[in-house]
Amino acid sequence: MTRIPLRLCKRAEFLSVRTGEKRRGSLFLLELKKRPLGMVPGPDDPPRIGFTVTRKNGNAVMRNRIRRRLREAVRTALADDLVVGTDYVIVARPEVLGVSFDHLIRELKRYIR
Predict the structure, then answer these.
(1) What is the mean pLDDT of the chain?
(2) Taking CA atoms, which of 18, 28, 59, 109 is between 20 and 30 Å from 88?
(3) pTM for this structure?
(4) Comparing C-alpha atoms, which of 47, 52, 70 is closest to residue 15?
């Protein structure tokens, strides 16, 4: 069964993940952080993921396309690779739009592991 990761929504959650591990890629920066034991309600705590696409990536149309592309890649190919009890933030670069979807998925899988 595919687990669908929850979304990070609050600014404080994004800032918390910034203090964790960073993995730099050519298409994005992946930040991840294990949640403290006190915050984890149970062993089946799903992973949470957030997406950051800044204005440097282009206008609103381009930023939304990047965000939708990343969300779909996580939903279709990475939901089972995410670790339970971990928060992830993907900070996108504009190059995400210029590569094939398969290449994007390969890069995401490479940095998630």
Answers:
(1) 88
(2) 59
(3) 0.86
(4) 52
